[in-house]
Write a structure and sequence with these properties.
Helices cover 73% and strands 0% of the residues. It has 289 residues and is mainly alpha-helical. The longest helix is centred in the last third of the chain and has 31 residues, at 205-235. Belongs to the MenA family. Type 1 subfamily.
């Protein structure tokens, strides 16, 4: 039986910035629209956190029973390492995704925009079928698109819409920026896993682009938020303060651009996530001024 610390590690806490950042950025855009609601923002955060924990456990379960995680470099895999029974990890995934669904339903009901149930259902289905089912889309190179949509566009714009009933250009810019950061985290992860993914038959976008193409994609993705900072700064100069987060990416850019492999890429995931969270916090502050 897995220990509490192993369950926590299996939830992959280093990915939590991917859930927090879109809500924080969305709150900033909502404040700019003078529509902020603290409890709706909190609900949106809990939905996002439940969703990412659910997808992490679901990935652990699905990859584990397929044998994909047997030789994986990186955080502990509960099923792949044998420290937890597959059924227990599946149950944890379903509980987390179920919680996201219930909290999301409350948020939709409070907003009165019932069509958002469709978006919520797509988010939950996307979390499961990333590596679950007979033809998981994450095995065919669509994982990056899903992360951009769910933890970028949906996460930020959903947070804005359930409070303001509309979105803004600033909100859209934040959604694209956070989505690019979040996709960069997955790209660095899949870059690290290219050798083992090829061996196990997992055809991620990284295995399709190859080592060099994946590195170039990562560098392009982490550039996008800062280009948007400059564009937003033309209209709201305080947003330029987000540029001070760029140094947080220096080690990651050097590692990815310099050809680091395997475990040497693990810090890049952490640092990219931290840069994303810092960018989101500062953008929220700037949009609130």
């Amino acid at each position: 039986m897995a220990s509490l610390s192993e369950w926590i590690e299996g939830a992959r806490p280093r990915t939590l910035p991917n859930a927090v950042a879109p809500v924080v950025a969305g709150v900033g855009a909502t404040i700019a629209l003078d529509a902020f609601s603290w409890w709706r923002s909190l609900l949106a955060l809990l939905v996002s956190l439940s969703l990412i924990v659910g997808v992490n456990y679901a990935n652990d379960y699905s990859d584990g029973i397929r044998g994909t995680d047997e030789n994986r470099v990186g955080p502990l895999r509960l099923v792949g390492s044998g420290v937890a029974a597959p059924k227990a990890v599946l149950a944890a995934a379903l509980v987390a995704l179920g919680l996201a669904g219930v909290l999301g339903l409350v948020l939709v009901a409070a907003s009165g925009h019932w069509w958002l149930l469709v978006m919520g259902a797509l988010c939950i289905l996307g979390a499961w079928f990333y590596t679950g089912g007979t033809r998981p889309y994450g095995y065919y190179g669509f994982g990056e698109i899903a992360v951009f949509v769910f933890f970028g566009l949906a996460g930020v714009l959903g947070t804005v819409y359930v409070q303001a009933g509309r979105v803004s250009w600033a909100g859209l810019a934040c959604a694209v920026a956070v989505g690019s950061f979040s996709t960069a985290v997955l790209t660095a992860n899949n870059l690290r896993d290219i050798p083992t993914d090829i061996e196990s038959g997992k055809r991620t976008l990284a295995t399709r682009l190859g080592d060099g193409g994946t590195r170039r994609l990562y560098l392009a993705l982490v550039t996008v938020p800062y280009v948007l900072s400059v564009v937003l700064g033309i209209f709201q100069p305080w947003v330029l303060i987000t540029l001070v987060t760029a140094p947080l990416l220096l080690k990651s850019v050097r590692a990815v651009g310099g050809g680091a492999q395997g475990r040497a890429l693990i810090p890049a995931l952490r640092d990219t996530g931290l840069a994303m969270l810092a960018w989101a916090v500062l953008s929220a502050v700037a949009l609130s001024v």
